[in-house]
Design a protein that fits this description.
- The complex is a heterodimer of chains A (594) and B (251).
- Chain A folds into 4 domains: 22-129, Immunoglobulin-like (Sandwich); 142-271, Sandwich (Immunoglobulin-like), CATH 2.60.40; 287-398, Sandwich (Immunoglobulin-like); 478-593.
- Chain A contains 8 helices and 30 strands.
- Chain A has helices at residues 2-17, 248-251, 449-478, 480-500, 507-529, 538-547, 553-568, 575-593; strands at 30-35, 39-41, 46-53, 69-83, 86-99, 103-107, 111-114, 117-120, 124-129, 142-148, 152-154, 159-167, 170-177, 185-189, 194-200, 203-216, 220-224, 228-237, 254-263, 267-272, 287-295, 299-301, 306-316, 332-336, 340-346, 349-362, 366-370, 374-379, 384-389, 393-398.
- In chain A, helix 4 (480-500) runs antiparallel to helix 5 and helix 7 packs antiparallel against helix 8 (575-593).
- Chain B is an alpha+beta fold and 251 residues long.
- Chain B is built from 9 helices and 7 strands.
- Chain B has helices at 2-18, 25-40, 44-56, 62-75, 78-91, 96-108, 120-124, 133-157, 160-189; strands spanning 191-195, 199-203, 212-217, 221-228, 231-235, 241-245, 249-250.
- Chain B is globular, with a radius of gyration of 23 Å.
- The chains are: A alpha+beta (594), B alpha+beta (251).
Chain lengths: 594, 251
């Protein structure tokens, strides 16, 4: 809610602050489709560009249906040009079309909507051929090869699928597609891709090799679709003129990037079902395997630890082999370790080794025999089910030398195999919901823009106010004229108030009243204008007030003259009250005009 | 008399900005308790409805979104779960349980797409990712208040220590304002969306007959980059982007 308001404010600001930019610039809109070539091979990639002239503010073009191509967006580019003060704009939508079939195809009209109208491009005829026949595999700059370790296999038998890319120039931006049907094969990567060099027919190629383990899941004849790799080949080019120039060979060398799609040949495989008569204990282990077992030490005391190691090795799906803890009838405490698995690929053969370790702690003394471990598997070479077994192992357990009670968890014995403490993850789950009500305070209302404005603005206002107060206090302290001017009204009204309480009924009092009133008025004017008030005359008061822009200058002079008249010829009794009132009003008026 | 009238007017205008209208808080908390109880009773559909109802009424609280997301996880709806964890993350970005549950929810999705990493500018202001926008604004308000007080004191007393404090506070304040700006820009530019349909086809254009470029599945995290009628342009990375129907994703 709050974010929305902020956005609206920003949008409004941008709308008001920025000059309006026309979107279409009043130009005619035109749409065109171009390709980089009309004839191409299955190895090439077609670049389709939809160019929209006259506007940049359109939705993306609606491309026609292109079932014979794989379409990938390659971004957009826009341009703005000025020619003789005329501005022209355009936007280009680029696509990368990878042919999936050979033949002649039409790229139908692409549609673009702009200013309420729909614009269409012209159809383009494209011919897709097979790879050029004159180039044999040995002469090509780059080619790919895929093969299987065997064309016939049993369900569950591990095969090796090898994909090799041969290239004589630099290859970058490799994008490999290996389309396996997941319902027919189980796929597993066999390590990182390998890179090496190989000479074919006198030409040296760089080879990138990737091996996968494929396990057929269903019987029958299956096809493996061609593997496809998209890549950029970096070709070096030279100017014709610089070929004879020894320096030109260094300085005129340029590179050209060629985007290619290379396809391997399709493969097929016949998958045979496993023969009948599946023995008990068979768990879909197919291949050729050996099994062995050994014990770390054969003579030990109660409470000591010995490690029993069972190793299964051979060709096939070794990683799927599992063993339960051996049944030792409570004579031993058993701590199984996490199995270790190593796999290697050599000459289209996957060989692996899986090691199971059990730490055994004898609980009682005596001669003990460990039971054998057995593995049942199907051997495709001999076309039969086989069982391999370990030899029984005997060991002699002596009573413990110390009388201390046995601590089975304690470690640190001399011959104890060093094992890292590992925590076995048994399951995963989310953290529970929160229930503390104080966490659920609704904080949707207290972040309004007005609140933020006041929160951020009020310190600024307070600062300005305090700065003004500080400034005024300093000026009152050091600027005498300012101090007099600021206190003039207060002093004058105080004196007038004091006079109003005194009776001026007799003539000497009226005379004194006139003198005092004149003095108060002149003192007020003197304070306001920073003059010696008592020394200035009525004419001078008028003149100075006029100079300072006071409108009531003449009235002030007249009032001062009346005060002088009262002072020197006190005739009327009731004139004092009237003069006092007039003086109060005049001072208020002058205060407003200041 | 005149001054007191002005002060009353000031209070009348300013106070409503600070004091929220009295909401029916007890009813709100009762609803939260009821939704939580329904969750514990494993009546997840009703619990989700109760949380949604609170949110529809305008409640904006990170823990509410978190609980709702947990409920959706229990219902097996990873799409709405991821969406509500993302919404909660905006409000309670430091919550460790939330981070762990979001990771768990993403692992439950088929596409397993992690939230996009922050851009270059955001990387410089990584610290601000641990705060929500509201917290950053409050921090800025407090710092702003302290700064102006310090400035006023410095003007009155003119000591070197106050000058140093003034300069440091100004620097911090500007940095904080810039961080808020970057956060606001990020939240408006890279709008995260979550696929809610079981499967959605990403098209080359905003039309049904456009070519399908690739497919996404429930719970997939995408960045919305454009909008056209009932279609949204979404981006997974620099290369993979396309258009999806607006109602197939939640933002």
């Amino acid at each position: 809610m709050f974010l929305g308001k902020i956005k609206k404010t920003i949008c409004l600001f941008l709308f008001l602050a920025l000059p309006s930019v026309p979107q279409s610039f009043g130009q005619d809109i035109s749409v065109a489709a171009t390709v980089n070539k009309n004839r191409l091979t299955m190895e090439d990639v077609l670049q389709l560009s939809i160019i929209i002239q006259g506007t940049q503010n359109t939705p993306p073009p609606k491309l026609p249906s292109l079932p014979d191509f794989r379409v990938v967006s390659a971004g957009t580019s826009s341009s703005t040009r000025y020619i003789n003060t005329q501005r022209s704009v355009s936007i280009t939508h680029n696509y990368r079309l990878t042919p999936m079939n050979t033949g002649t195809f039409f790229i139908g009209p692409a549609r673009v909507q702009a200013n309420g109208k729909t614009y269409s491009t012209q159809p383009i005829k494209i011919t897709v051929q097979k790879s050029l026949s004159q180039e044999t595999e040995g002469n090509k700059t780059a080619f790919v090869v895929a093969n299987l370790s065997s064309e016939k296999a049993y369900v569950g038998e591990q095969l090796v699928y090898t994909f090799r890319l041969f290239h004589r120039v630099d290859a970058k931006n490799l994008n490999l597609h290996l389309p396996f049907d997941k319902t027919q094969f189980h796929k597993e990567e066999l390590g990182k891709p390998k890179s090496y060099s190989k000479v074919i027919n006198g030409l040296q190629y760089h080879v990138q090799e990737l091996s996968l383990a494929l396990v057929p899941l269903k019987k029958g004849r299956h096809k493996i679709a061609p593997a496809r790799v998209e890549l950029d080949l970096i070709r070096n080019t030279q100017n014709r003129s610089s070929r004879d120039d020894p320096f030109g060979q260094f300085f005129s060398r340029r590179t050209r990037v060629e985007h290619k799609v290379l396809r391997a040949q399709p493969l097929s495989i016949e998958v045979l079902p496993l023969p009948d008569g599946v023995p008990e204990g068979f768990e879909n282990i197919v291949g050729q395997f050996n099994i062995s077992a050994e014990l770390g030490k054969h003579n030990l005391e109660v409470g000591d630890t010995a490690t029993l190691t069972v190793t299964v090795s051979g060709k096939g799906n070794v990683q799927d082999v599992t063993f339960d803890e051996p049944d030792l009838e409570s004579h031993f405490k058993i701590y199984p370790d996490k199995p270790e698995f190593h796999q290697t690929v050599h000459n289209n053969q996957v060989t692996g080794e899986k090691t199971f370790k059990f730490a055994l702690v004898p609980l009682e003394s005596g001669n003990k025999t460990l039971p054998e471990f057995s593995l049942t598997f199907f051997d495709p070479g001999k076309v039969q089910y086989r069982v391999v077994r370990t030899q029984p192992i005997t060991l002699n357990v002596k009573p413990a030398a110390t009388k201390e009670s046995l601590n089975l968890v304690q470690s640190g014995q001399q011959n104890t195999p060093s094992r890292k403490p590992k925590i076995e993850i048994l399951g995963k789950d989310i953290f529970p919901i929160y229930t503390e009500l104080n966490k659920f305070q609704n904080d949707g209302n207290d972040s309004s823009p007005a609140f933020i404005g006041v929160g951020l603005g009020s310190p600024v206002i307070l600062f300005i106010l305090s700065a003004l107060i500080i400034k005024r206090r300093r000026r009152m302290k050091y600027d005498a004229a300012f101090y007099r001017c600021q206190n003039a009204y207060k002093n004058a009204t105080r004196c007038l108030k004091k006079m109003s309480t005194v009776e001026h009924s007799d003539l000497p009092a009226a005379k004194e009243f006139g003198r005092k009133l004149s003095e108060i008025l002149r003192e007020y004017v003197g304070n306001k204008l920073n003059l010696q008030g008592k020394a200035i005359t009525a004419e001078e008061v008028e003149h100075r007030l006029k100079e300072s822009g006071y409108e009531s200058a003449a009235v002030t002079r007249k009032l001062l003259e009346r005060c002088a008249t009262l002072q020197f010829s006190p005739t009327t009794r009731d004139s004092t009250k009237g003069l006092l009132g007039e003086s109060e009003n005049l001072i208020k008026l002058l205060e407003k005009q200041s | 008399m005149k001054h007191s009238n002005s002060f009353s007017l000031f209070l009348f205008c300013v106070l409503p900005l600070f004091i929220s209208p009295p909401a029916d808080a007890s009813k709100y908390f009762e609803e939260v308790v009821r939704a939580n109880d329904l969750h514990f009773e494993k009546r997840y559909a009703q619990s989700a409805k109760a949380y949604e109802s609170l949110i529809d009424k305008g409640a904006r609280n990170g823990y509410l979104y978190y609980n709702l997301a947990n409920t959706y996880i229990r219902m097996g709806k990873t799409g709405p779960a991821v969406l509500n964890y993302i919404r909660a993350r905006k409000l309670i970005p430091r919550d460790e349980n939330l981070a762990a549950n979001l990771k768990f929810a993403i692992q439950q999705t088929r596409d397993k797409i992690e939230p996009p990493s922050p851009g270059t500018l955001s990387a410089l202001f990584l610290w601000s990712n641990d705060f929500n926008l509201r917290e950053l604004i409050y921090l800025a308000m407090i710092l702003n208040f302290i700064f102006w007080i310090t400035l006023a004191l410095w003007m009155y007393f003119r000591s070197s220590s106050l000058q140093l404090a003034r300069n440091v506070l100004l620097g911090l304040l500007l940095f904080l304002f810039f961080s808020i700006g970057v956060k606001l820009k990020n939240e408006s530019d890279s709008k995260l969306a979550v696929v809610l349909d079981e499967r959605v086809e990403v098209k080359s254009g905003g039309a049904e007959d456009a070519i399908t470029l690739f497919q996404l599945h429930e719970g997939a995290l995408v960045t919305v980059t454009d909008k056209y009628e009932d279609w949204l342009e979404v981006r997974l990375n620099d290369e993979q982007k396309g258009w999806v129907p607006k109602n197939s994703v939640g933002t």
